[in-house]
Write a structure and sequence with these properties.
By secondary structure, the protein is an all-beta fold. It is 0% helix and 47% strand. It is built from no helices and 19 strands. The protein is globular, with a radius of gyration of 18 Å. The chain starts with a strand and ends with a strand.
Length: 217
Amino acid sequence: FDFRVNNGKLSYYDKINKFWIIADDTMTEVDSLSCTQGITDYHDILLLDNDGYILQCYDSIWVELELPTPQLLKDILVIQEFDSDNNLILNWNALDHLSLHDYPNINLSLPEITFMHGNSFEIDYDENLLLSNRTSDEVFKIDRTTGDIIWIMGGPLNEFIFIDDPLNGFNKQHDVRRIDNGNITLFDNGTMHHPMLSRAVEYEIDEINKTARLIWA
């Protein structure tokens, strides 16, 4: 999966063994990378200038929420950053920063509950992280040092006002990226639009006043 040039190297995901493979410019495999817990995921990987790297994985736990028997909480998103010596320097666990009870779209009465679907992460202009959670139609900005959530755009916890967007935002999105002009692009899968409509969008983001202005689609 996801065979591509990645900061001067090649990276691709081995879906059978569930880890990332790194190769040099002769396509010789030189390393394999995985998270320290859960299942290492294939949706994104960042190889950094300092030879560190960022991965994501999923954990699961048994919880007691709305049923008399324990429920399996699946797909707890974990973002892990490692330094060049493979030391873990950031371990962001979604449950440490978010509450299931804030998400009305998640059915808490099921025996198995799916929490998140992270499908892209990006180092922002200020060295913090942008993270896409498709399950709840939201984009997070996360402090890369503390793990605190700086802001949330879209979804049940949305903090932004969408301007000049006839669909008033996005849903089930992929591939959230900050581009050179400072704007944010993403692919709005749009399965919850009425009628359903998929589009590529570019938003001009005001992080102080919390506005997202659609300038291109």
